[in-house]
């Protein structure tokens, strides 16, 4: 399915749209990009146990928000509207850009954390990647769909609030799933290391349903597949909104 979608895209137009997004983002952010370094250091030092997956999620969200914000400030969408570019391709390029940003954020976080682990905390592990991918895809599925439906300026605050809620609630649920899988594999007490030390009210709430989780079907792999399905559904709905001319004014 994904391969057929990619084949249908106009490759040259897609590349040009992605280049446009990168240029718009760099021009609109500039010095502000130092906020990512500050956010990284603060989370790594003071929220270490969630920083390994939290940093890629936050970076991906900031960067994609910067692109939508740059479009809004520069009115670049109106310019694209005047060009022979299909509206579908604008949506495709934005969703593809998000995937590329997420992958890049995970790679950079992995490299930096693994380097710093020689001096401070642990390195990145596979579950960190699962958490980052799953949470980011769900957050950006909702955020981008809202932006294409209502426009960035009208929904940015609500989108940020929803993103925070998803990070906390969905992250807590993923933690319970990961702990259940670990319990079954290790056959011992719940993992309590620097790996999962942030216990919240929401985590305790989801632990109540832990007994009903069948890890044969609900595990980190199936949750990642689900996140990608949600992302593809969001993209399809966003295309309908875009063609309905709700985002481009």
Summary, kept brief:
The protein is built from 10 helices and no strands. With 249 residues, the chain is mostly helical. It starts with a helix and ends in a 6-residue tail after the last helix.
Q: What topology does this entry show?
A:
Layout: H1 2-8, H2 11-29, H3 34-46, H4 48-74, H5 76-81, H6 87-116, H7 126-150, H8 152-186, H9 201-207, H10 220-243
Helix pairs in contact: 2-4, 2-6, 3-4, 4-6, 4-7, 4-8, 6-7, 6-10, 7-8, 7-10, 8-9
Which band does the percent of strand residues land in? Answer: under 5%
Mean pLDDT: 78
Structural class: mainly alpha
DSSP, total strands: 0
What is the number of helices? 10
Termini, distance in Å? 31 Å
Low-pLDDT residue intervals, each spanning 5 or more residues: 1-9, 188-198
Order of helices and strands: HHHHHHHHHH
Protein name: ABC-2 transporter permease
Organism: Peptacetobacter hominis
InterPro entries: ABC2_memb-like
Pfam family, one: ABC2_membrane_5
Summarize the structure in words.
By secondary structure, the protein is mostly helical. It is 78% helix and 0% strand. It has ten helices and no strands. The chain crosses the membrane at residues 53-70, 91-117, 129-147, 154-173, 211-233.
What distinguishing features does this structure have?
mainly alpha; single chain; globular; 249 residues
């Amino acid at each position: 399915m994904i391969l057929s979608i990619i084949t249908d895209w106009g490759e040259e137009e897609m590349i040009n749209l992605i280049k446009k997004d990168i240029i718009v983002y760099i021009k609109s952010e500039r010095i502000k990009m130092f906020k990512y370094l500050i956010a990284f250091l603060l989370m790594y030092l003071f929220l270490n146990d969630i920083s390994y997956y939290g940093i890629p999620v936050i970076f991906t969200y900031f960067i994609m928000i910067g692109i939508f914000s740059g479009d809004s400030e520069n009115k670049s969408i109106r310019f694209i509207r005047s060009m022979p570019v299909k509206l579908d391709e604008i949506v495709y390029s934005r969703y593809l850009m998000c995937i590329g940003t997420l992958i890049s954020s995970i790679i950079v976080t992995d490299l930096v954390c693994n380097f710093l682990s020689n001096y401070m905390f642990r390195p990145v592990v596979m579950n960190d990647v699962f958490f980052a991918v799953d949470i980011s895809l769900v957050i950006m599925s909702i955020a981008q769909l809202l932006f294409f439906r209502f426009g960035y300026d009208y929904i940015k605050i609500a989108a940020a609030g929803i993103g925070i809620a998803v990070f906390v609630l969905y992250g807590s649920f993923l933690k319970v799933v990961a702990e259940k899988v670990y319990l079954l594999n290790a056959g011992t007490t719940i993992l309590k290391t620097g790996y999962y030390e942030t216990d919240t009210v929401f985590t305790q709430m989801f632990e109540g349903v832990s007994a009903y989780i069948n890890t044969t079907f609900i595990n980190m792999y199936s949750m990642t597949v689900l996140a990608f399905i949600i992302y593809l559904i969001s993209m399809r709905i966003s295309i309908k909104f875009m063609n309905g001319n709700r985002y481009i004014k």
